[in-house]
Amino acid sequence: MARPSLMGATALWWTVAASVALGLSAPAALSSQSAPVRTTEVYALRYGTLRNFPVYALVAGADTARRVDAALMVWLVRRPDGRNVLVDAGFYRDKFITQWKPADYRKPSDAVKAAGLEPKEITDIVVSHVHWDHADGLDLFPNARVWIQRAEYTHHIDSAGRVRDATIDSVDAAMLARLKDAGKVRLIDGDAQEVLPGLTVYTGGRHTFASQYVGVRTAEGVVVLASDNAYLYENLSTRTPIAQTLDSASNRRAQERMFKLAGSPRLVIPGHDPEIFVLFPTPGNGVARIR
Ligand SMILES: [Zn+2]
Predict the structure, then answer these.
(1) How far is the CA of 130 from the centre of ligand 1 (A)?
(2) Which residues fall within 8 angstroms of residue 14, CB to CB, at 6 or more apart?
(3) In this structure, are residues 8 and 257 in contact, taking their beta carbons and an 8 Å threshold?
(4) How far does residue 12's CA lie from ligand 1's centre (Å)?
(5) Residue 144: count of CB within 10 angstroms of its CB
(6) How confident is the model at residue 34, as a pLDDT?
C-alpha cells in the first residue's frame, strides 16, 4: 500500500534510515510506509521519562537516596506474516499526564509512528499487566486485538467494567470492558501460552495478580520482554526482586527463568531501564532495535 501522503517528515526520514540499515534501496522503501519485514524484528519504543524516580520503588531494598530517570516504553514486534504486535500500550489520558508530569512525552501511538507504522497497523497488543502506564493506551490502536491473562482481567474488572482491585484505574477498567464488549479482547489461560507462532507469554512474575511477560522468537534467539516483572537491569543482574510484587520469591524465579528462555542474557529486556537505549542505540529517536 502506498500512502506517502500520510508520512510526516520524521517518519519519512526513519523509513529511509531503516531502509539503508536493511540494505534496501530508499525508493523501494518509500513506496510503502510499512514494507513487510523479512524476519521478526523487536523494538523498544520510548514515549517518555519519569525523571528522578526513586530506585527503591523499583529495586527491593535499594538505597532511598538513589534516583533514576525511568524510561516509559512500549515494545513492538514486527513479523514477516504481517502482524505488528505491541507489548503494552503506555498511557495518554490527561489525568495521568497531569499527575505524573512525564518528560519528553509523546503519545505511545506517536512512538509507533516513529518506528514507521501507523497506529491502525497494530494488529495485536499483549498487555503485561493492568497498570495505567501499560494499559491506558490500548484504545489508541483501533484495529488491535488485546491479549491479557484471564486471571488478570477478572481479578481487576467486574462484569460491568467496574474496578474489583484498585491496582487498575477506573477509567482503564471501563475502557478494557468496552474493548471486551466489542469483541476485541482475547483472554489467555495461564503460563507458557503461544498466542502467535513464536510469540509466547509467561506468568509467575507476580508484579500484579497475573502479570505476564513475553518471549519472541527471532533470528538472534528468543527476546524476553519482561515489562514490570523486572523493572531495571539492576533487578536482573543482581536477581533482586522488584519492589512492587505480590510474591518476591516467585518474582526472583521468574527472572531466572527469563535468562533460560532468552537467546542470550542481553536479550532480556527490563520494563523501565533507560540503559536499553544506550545498549541498543539504533535506529535512534527513542526507537531501539533489540538484537
Ligand atoms: Zn506496573
Answers:
(1) 7
(2) 114, 115, 116, 283, 285, 287
(3) no
(4) 33
(5) 23
(6) 78
Query: Strand pairing partners for 72?
Result: 48
Of 6-15, 163-172, 180-189, minimum mean pLDDT range: 6-15
Grid cell listed for 205: 512474575
Maximum alpha-carbon separation in the chain: 53
**Does 157 score more than 80 pLDDT?**
yes
Residues 6+ apart with CB under 8 A from 47: 72, 73, 74, 90, 105, 106, 107, 108, 110, 111, 286
Backbone angles phi, psi at 194, to 5 degrees: -85, 110
> How far, in Å, is the centroid of ligand 1 from the Cα of 38?
33
CA 78 / ligand 1 centre spacing (Å): 24
Whether residue 246 contacts residue 235, with contact meaning beta carbons closer than 8 Å, is answered with no
The Å distance, Cα 228 to ligand 1 centre, comes to 5
> Residue with C-alpha cell 515494545?
75
Strand ranges inside 208-262, DSSP E: 212-218, 221-227
Percentage of the chain lying above the pLDDT 90 cut: 88
CA–centroid distance, 230 to ligand 1, in Å, is 10
Distance between Cα 87 and ligand 1 center (Å): 13
Q: Which residues pair with 279 in a beta bridge?
A: none
pLDDT at position 35, please?
A: 83
Q: Tally the residues of the chain.
A: 291
CB 145 within 8 A of CB 84: no
> How far does the centroid of ligand 1 lie from the alpha carbon of residue 129, in Å?
7
Span 89-102, pLDDT tens digits: 999 999 999 999 99
Please tell me the pTM assigned to this model: 0.88
Q: Is the pLDDT of residue 23 over 90?
A: no
CB atoms within 10 A of CB 221: 15
Domain ranges within the chain, ordered by starting residue = 1-35, 36-289
User: 36-289 — its CATH code?
Assistant: 3.60.15.10
